[in-house]
Automatic annotation (TrEMBL):
Residues 1-18 form the signal peptide. It comes from the Eukaryota. This is Pleckstrin homology domain-containing family H member 3. Its main location: cytoplasm. Residues 93-198 form the PH domain. Residues 261-421 form the MyTH4 domain. GO terms for cellular component: cytoplasm; cytoskeleton. It comes from Callipepla squamata. The lineage of its organism: Eukaryota, Metazoa, Chordata, Craniata, Vertebrata. It is found in: Cytoplasm.
Length: 853
């Protein structure tokens, strides 16, 4: 029989821990079929030492939600506060009250189906609604407000569709969708409800309380490990402290099944998450529900790992969910700790799958400090209980990884997951000018700065007789494989063993700047010094699968501070030769066609030595700038538009009627003629190049390379990084024009495309400031005028200017640079010498950029 006048449910325990039939915890059935074992935990108020013993069991869904809500124990009834039968106008607890419309349950609000109005009263503990505002009115419902409740602001789209402003309040079991015709009233209710939610004490789940109990029982020092792993002596000391209260720890684990492995489903997350749809969506193609639902789904996915023959795809899916929804990282760590604690078959295939996922998590995400301390304790406990086992080996690997892990931009690729499951490292094979092959071992934590520093310390000089194709291969092929510890070609790039790189390399004395670049046929971008190479491998592998474009990693110059003093017999000169040739192919050397043919002949001499009919011939576009050949072709003549309106109408009808196929055929024939003309021009150009190649008989490869670089160096802009820009406001007041912006070590210059001499040049002493006006506009202040450039490479230009300024200040410490630089220069001055900061997500499409951009 229902209670007369309704019932106001309110459950508050120890300053804000609220449980409304919330069945946290778990229960497991014993092997002999006995009743479930109750899990007990301590529920403490903040700032108090007294404890309350609470009996808690895993929820069983043997009845419907409506039946379960009526089954309330006597202990919970004693905590429920029951108020009067109806609203009282003079109720001092009422914060806000008024008439609101509530959405019909199970229906959709439409203009012709108006929902009923109810009298709503907001108190410091709940949101209640009544049938009317008279004394003795029936209370129809109540939503208890806790710190996990949430409220959504009015949506303009809903107002356009329905004519009402909506206020949505999410509770544990119920969701109130309220409507009002006035925006100010909706805002008033939202602010009031949010203020009540903010005033509530944070809710702590039993898992959080038990984590704190474990931390207290083992001592604060043993769980203070947030950084690098402890040494062996520290671990021994930690183990000694653990032994001080082993009975207490075993009692906690024995009496609380929520901390142990379970084969039953989980109906509630282990950590508190807000109710409702806040933060439920993530960027990308994935669609998610609420955080609480996603946490439960992830636990079901974890349980599927035990029976998976190939767990790699499922592991990657779980990692992707954690990347899209960062609040779930701590939840997954807690679930993995739970499932790896006292499993039915320790070390079995299913248990090892959990440890493999935990390994991948430790190399991808870093948990919060409380969860991290609890995780360290779990790993130490596993190593002590199962020494020399696979679980102990995984625990040791995870301990080391947690000391190095930071945020990842991409989840590990399938290849990286396979390597991590074997507790191995990846191998990146780098090919660059002067080096046949150098395989560097990288981990999930290796940055581009470490690899770049290893190469900078490793350059040497060319030896006579080195095969030509050995030191002229400019690209680095990305590859991932398990590290072979017996291979002598592998070079470790971690800071401790970077000195063990190939002994014949050594670029530390070079004054120039270097960087690692990602390069494909479509784009080229430098890899930031703090960028994880594992993320580069993952992102590039995805691009190769989607666009079928091979991606390569290249070690090259980033900035030139001194090109004259580079020894001709050094590997750096070979790298300089390759970048000069790249500059020529992109059309950034304004010189005569005769000189371009001579450069192509020198390139052939450096590749194949003396002329021979059996020598391999590269494609013409690999020797000669393609844009020069295209410039020879006559521009297509556009058809003159019809003069009168009737003629335009007839032309349109003919184009879409019988004559449409004829016009398309004419265009195809015109394209064929242009391509044929282009082939003829290419053949004549190749013949001229071969004739010049024959004249180089007897010239050695080093001499050919030196002659090539000497010809390119004749252009005054050699050594500058060129950017294609549109000058919005020119010094002479002309309109926008396409220019080259050259960033050099001593000055910034403006070139007209194809012109060898600059229009203007500004030394750094004349530049007062620079920076980005917006995402596509770069501002350069020169004395009393501002130059605005439209470009898609704003970040690259600003970073390169900062790098040159930092290099100047490093070379002249007694004369500090007085130029005010942009905010991007904060990290530029702290980079090691010879390495490019290359910070930021840089991308630019070829051929927009010079040989060093």
């Amino acid at each position: 029989m229902p209670f007369p006048g309704g019932l106001w449910w309110l459950l508050c325990c120890r300053q804000g821990f609220t449980l409304l039939r919330r069945d946290y915890g778990e229960a497991e059935r014993e092997a002999d079929g006995e009743a479930e074992e109750d899990a007990s935990f301590e529920l403490r108020a903040q700032g108090e030492r007294a404890s309350l013993e609470v009996s808690l069991s895993q929820p069983t869904r043997t009845s419907s939600g409506s039946e379960r809500s009526l089954l309330v124990s006597e202990d919970m009834r004693s905590l429920i506060v029951e108020k009067g039968p109806g609203p009282v106008e003079e109720d001092p607890d009422a914060l806000v009250k008024g008439w609101l419309q509530r959405e019909v349950r199970g229906g959709v609000k439409t203009p012709w189906l108006r929902p009923r109005k109810y009298w709503f009263v907001l108190t410091p503990d709940s949101l209640d609604y009544y049938s009317s505002n008279e004394r003795g009115a029936k209370r129809l419902g109540s939503l208890v407000l806790t710190s996990l409740c949430s409220v959504l602001w009015p949506d303009k789209q809903t107002y356009k569709e329905t004519g009402f402003w909506s206020v949505t309040v999410f509770g544990r079991k119920h969701c109130y969708r309220l409507y009002t015709e006035h925006l100010h009233e909706a805002v008033r209710w939202v602010c009031a409800v949010q203020k009540v939610i903010d005033s509530k004490a944070p809710v702590q789940t039993p898992t959080q309380l038990l984590m704190r109990d474990v931390e207290v029982s083992v001592g604060p020092w043993a769980l203070r490990r947030v950084g690098a792993p402890l040494a062996a002596a520290a671990i021994a000391s930690s183990s000694q402290e653990h032994c001080e209260s082993p009975e207490v720890l075993e009692q906690i684990y024995r009496c609380n099944p929520i901390l142990r492995y379970t084969s039953s489903p989980l109906y509630a997350p282990l950590l508190p998450f807000p109710y409702g749809s806040l933060d439920q969506s993530a960027p990308g193609p994935h669609s998610y529900t609420t955080l609480r639902d996603e946490a439960v789904k992830l636990f079901n996915s974890l349980q599927q790992l035990e029976s998976q023959q190939d767990p790699v795809p499922l592991i990657q899916g779980i990692l992707q969910t954690c990347l899209d929804l960062p609040p779930l990282v701590d939840e997954i760590y807690c679930q993995l700790v739970k499932q790896t604690t006292e499993p039915p078959a320790p070390g079995g295939p299913g248990d090892l799958h959990y440890w493999q996922l935990l390994t991948c998590m430790s190399c991808t995400f870093l948990p919060s400090p409380p969860v991290l301390r609890f995780l360290h304790f779990h790993l130490d406990r596993t190593e002590r209980r199962f020494p020399a086992s696979e679980m102990a080996k995984y625990a040791c690997f995870i301990q080391e990884a947690l000391g190095k892990t930071r945020g990842r931009e991409c989840v590990p690729s399938l290849e990286e997951i396979l390597v991590l499951m074997r507790r191995q490292e990846m191998v990146c094979t780098v090919h660059c000018p002067g080096v046949a092959a150098c395989s560097v071992t990288i981990s999930s934590h290796t940055t581009a700065q470490e690899v770049g520093a290893a190469f900078a310390r490793g350059w040497g000089r060319l030896e006579e007789g080195t095969p030509a194709m050995t030191y002229l291969c400019p690209f680095a092929v990305l590859s991932t494989a398990a590290r072979d510890t017996q291979s002598p070609l592998v070079a470790f790039v971690s800071p401790q063993v970077a000195q063990e790189l190939v002994s014949r390399l050594g670029l530390s004395q070079s004054p120039n700047l270097f960087a690692l670049y990602e390069q494909s046929r479509l784009r080229e971008q430098p890899v930031g010094s703090s960028t994880l190479l594992a993320d580069v491998l993952t992102s590039r592998a995805g691009d190769e699968r989607e666009h079928d474009v091979p991606c390569r990693l290249r070690f090259k110059h980033y900035g030139f501070l001194d090109t004259d003093s580079v020894p001709r017999d050094s590997l750096e000169f070979a790298l300089l030769f390759e970048q000069a040739h790249e500059m020529v192919l992109r059309g950034y050397v304004p010189t005569s066609e005769e000189t371009l043919q001579t450069l192509a002949a020198l390139r052939l001499q450096s590749l194949n030595s003396d002329f021979s009919t059996r020598a391999p011939f590269p494609r013409l576009e690999e020797l000669f700038p393609p844009r020069v050949l295209r410039a020879r072709l006559p521009p297509p003549r556009p058809n003159p538009p019809p003069k009168c309106r009737g003629a335009r109408l007839r032309a349109g009808l003919l184009a879409g009627g019988l004559w449409g196929h004829s016009l398309a055929k004419q265009r195809a024939e015109q394209d064929l003629r242009l391509r044929g003309r282009l082939r003829e021009e290419g053949a004549s150009t190749m013949a001229a190049i071969v004739e010049k190649w024959k004249l180089l008989q007897g010239m050695g490869r080093p001499e050919a390379m030196a002659a090539y670089v000497a010809l390119v160096r004749e252009w005054p802009g050699f050594g500058s990084t060129l950017f294609d820009v549109d000058l919005r406001a020119s010094p002479v007041g002309a309109g926008p024009q396409r220019l080259w912006l050259g960033i050099g070590a001593k000055a910034v210059s403006l070139y007209k495309p194809g012109e060898p001499e600059p229009l203007d040049s500004f030394c750094y002493s004349r530049i007062s400031s620079f920076g980005a006006s917006d995402s596509s506009t770069f501002r350069l202040s020169v004395e009393d005028q501002d130059l605005l450039f439209e470009t898609s490479q704003v970040d690259e230009i600003a970073q390169l200017l900062n790098t040159y300024l930092a290099s100047m200040s490093a070379r002249q410490p007694a004369q500090p640079q007085e130029l005010p630089t942009s905010p991007l220069s904060a990290d530029a001055a702290v980079q090691p010498r010879g390495l490019c900061p290359a910070a930021g997500p840089w991308q630019h499409l070829l051929p927009a950029g010079s040989f060093s951009s």
